[in-house]
Design brief:
The complex is a heterodimer.
Chain A (H helix, E strand, L loop, with lengths): L5 E10 L2 E11 L4 E5 L6 H9 L6 E6 L2 E2 L5 H7 L1 E4 L11 H12 L14 H13 L15 H14 L4 E5 L7 H14 L4 E5 L3 H7 L2 E6 L2 E6 L1 H6 L1 H13 L1
Helix pairs in contact in A: 3-4, 3-5, 4-5
Chain B lengths: L1 H19 L8 H26 L8 H16 L5 H23 L4 H20 L10 E2 L15 H24 L1 H11 L1 H6 L4 H27 L1 E2 L6 H14 L4 H21 L3 H15 L7 H11 L1
Antiparallel strand pairs in B: 1-2
Helix pairs in contact in B: 2-6, 2-9, 2-10, 2-11, 3-4, 3-5, 3-9, 4-5, 4-9, 6-7, 7-9, 10-11, 11-12
Classes of the chains: A alpha/beta, B mainly alpha.
Bound molecules: adenosine-5'-triphosphate and magnesium ion.
């Protein structure tokens, strides 16, 4: 078996008396899209936080590209090739779409302790940023301040920023959250296009999207991994249906 | 880029005005003194702008860096070293070092804790200066003479000093512009808007903020060198927290959006004080309400005024 890009080993996290991550172990293989689903409050975002480095687990390890990164902060993990998008859009509102992405390119290309040359005039940064914008369908909006973009466009921008980092693993926390059906369709097509090129850990509520995209699905309920397997097996799993999918179908 | 050219028009105009001032009937002694003071405070405000407007961190201890620059002049004057090419770098270096050392601690925080820590360090510097008996303690220290420049007594010459202040102010202004537009400045500005996003693309904001703080300290030290030479007298009051507050006010009055705001704010506040002083001996009573009105109604500060006026005209 190939060495996984990401391996979580017995992660545990408590908030006061509440166990939000409970002995979670999983692996993401290179090029694999691994979806994590689960009801609201299951601990999906908290799990993503521990993988990206915004939260420190109470126990367990995060192994990224064979390296133990459990003790590394967000910025260090990002430089190792771990890119994340946020469930609540988190872009730089005063920066143009292009400059938002150019900052991400800057993060992986040389020192940023350069003081007198205008960054906006660096063709290399701008070209790579434009390519990422084009990839997410935002090329026409490059000069618009992020604050003036529509909600859906800001979701696309989140993705463009992550892609511009040329990461080894994409952590996507509900990339479709709050988008309309057309935007969602475009984003799913875009994620389809990334298949095989990036390893992706995807948290998503949109089941149609999950089953269209995922190579593997893990079900998280109250912090515990209830099941993990191929989409068809998960869909057929009676325990999963009771705990999670059942709600959907009853509704 | 027409937008950036437009942004450069007003600063160029102001610097040209300052350059022409001695020949526009403003060459009288008291007026030249006032203008020099305005440009020096403009430089100090510019350095504070780098911290507040550039990095998004509100400091209430900036006068300490100005004062440390001035006390570097005192210490060298006491040792009979008056060559500006030695004294000015010493003033810059001392203040930058103080900024780096205190910043290393203060920048572990942000927001209100940062304000409190910078205030506390500023007060430490103030009380240290007041207890330096061999430099006059509370009473301050009168310089033997202004610094010499390359051996010549250029700084004694009123015009020479005027143009030195102007050149340093304009140079610092240009430097701030370039700095903020550079890769370094982009990270700094991004960290001001959203530190989490900056970390998520691989930057830790801390070293960028610390270096910006050190650069700001060095600029304030240079202003302190000029101020000591302008007044030929240095006292602990240079480092008082009220002075820090005044600098902060200049920056906010001028507008946080551009380094030009700091220069404008410093000159405006100084001229306002001077103008009100001519009108009435109770000018301090008038200054307060005027400043409150300025903050309430000048949302983008003085630099934002043209845009604000254009906006009202369009909407009204
Ligand atoms: N910082 C925190 N302190 C205390 N409790 C928290 C904290 N963050 C999250 N929680 C709790 O942990 C649980 C899991 O939250 P989390 O955001 O990880 O869920 P989620 O699966 O992402 O939910 P959703 O589908 O709504 O996004 C929730 O009960 C939440 O209230
Ligand atoms: Mg969530």
């Amino acid at each position: 078996m190939v060495e996984p890009v990401l391996r979580l080993d017995g992660l545990r996290k408590r908030f006061g008396g509440l166990t939000v991550t409970d002995a979670v172990s999983l692996a993401v293989a290179p090029g694999e899209i691994h979806a994590v689903i689960g009801p609201n409050g299951a601990g999906k975002t908290t799990l993503i936080h521990q993988v990206s480095g915004t939260l420190r687990p109470d126990a367990g390890r995060v192994l990224f590209a064979g390296q133990d990164v459990t003790g590394l902060p967000l910025a260090r993990r990002a430089r190792l090739g771990l890119a994340r998008s946020f469930q609540i859009t988190s872009v730089l509102p005063g920066f143009s779409a292009l400059e938002n992405v150019a900052l991400a390119v800057q993060g992986r290309s040389g020192s940023s302790f350069r003081f007198l040359r205008p960054a906006a005039a660096e063709a290399m940064l701008n070209e790579a940023a434009m390519a990422a914008l084009a990839q997410t369908g935002l090329a026409g909006r490059a000069a618009v301040p992020a604050a003036a973009l529509s909600h859906g466009e800001r979701r696309q921008l989140e993705l463009a920023i992550a892609l511009a980092m040329q990461p080894r693993l994409l952590l996507l926390d509900e990339p479709l959250a709050g988008t309309g059906p057309e935007e969602a369709e475009r984003l799913v097509a875009l994620l389809q296009g990334l298949r095989g090129r990036y390893a992706i850990l995807l948290v998503e509520h949109d089941m149609a999207a999950v089953f269209a995209l995922a190579d593997r699905v893990s079900v998280l309920v109250q912090g515990r991994l209830l099941a993990s397997g191929a989409p068809a097996a998960i869909r057929a799993d009676p325990a999963v249906r009771v705990a999670y999918l059942g709600e959907d179908e009853a509704a | 880029m027409p937008a950036s050219r437009r942004a450069a028009t007003l600063p160029l105009l102001l610097f040209a005005l300052l350059a022409a001032a001695p020949f526009l009937g403003l060459g009288e002694g008291w007026m030249m003194t006032l203008l020099a003071r305005g440009m020096i405070l403009g430089l100090a405000a510019l350095s504070l702008w780098l911290v507040v407007g550039g990095a998004g961190l509100v400091s209430l201890g900036h006068a300490a860096m100005l004062g440390i620059g001035a006390y570097a002049v005192v210490a060298l004057d006491e040792a009979r070293i008056t060559e500006a090419l030695v004294v000015a770098p010493a003033a810059i270096g001392a203040a930058a070092l103080f900024a780096l050392l205190t910043g290393a601690v203060a920048l572990r925080t942000a927001g209100v804790p940062f304000i409190m820590i910078t205030l506390a360090f500023g007060q430490m510097a103030f009380f240290t200066a007041a207890s330096l008996a061999f430099y006059g303690g509370d009473d301050g220290y009168t310089l033997y003479a202004r610094s010499t420049l390359a051996g010549g007594r250029w700084l004694e010459n009123r015009l020479g000093f005027h143009y030195l202040c102007l050149a340093l102010l304009a140079g610092a202004f240009l430097f701030c512009h370039l700095l903020l537009a550079s890769r370094f400045g982009r990270v700094l500005r991004a960290a001001r808007e959203n530190p989490l996003r900056v970390q998520a693309v691989g930057f830790s904001p801390y070293p960028y903020r610390l270096l910006a703080y050190g650069i700001a300290g060095g600029m304030a030290g240079l202003a302190g060198f000029l101020l000591a030479n302008a007044t030929e007298f240095v006292a602990p009051s240079f480092l008082a927290w009220q002075r820090s507050g005044e600098l902060l006010f200049m920056v906010i009055l001028g507008g946080l959006g551009s380094p030009f705001g700091a220069v404008l704010g410093a000159l405006a506040l100084l001229l306002l004080e001077e103008g009100l002083g001519h009108l009435t001996p109770h000018w301090r009573l008038l200054l307060g309400p005027l400043l409150v009105l300025a903050v309430l109604f000048l949302r983008g500060g003085l630099v934002g005024l043209p845009a604000q006026l254009a906006g009202t005209r369009r909407h009204g």
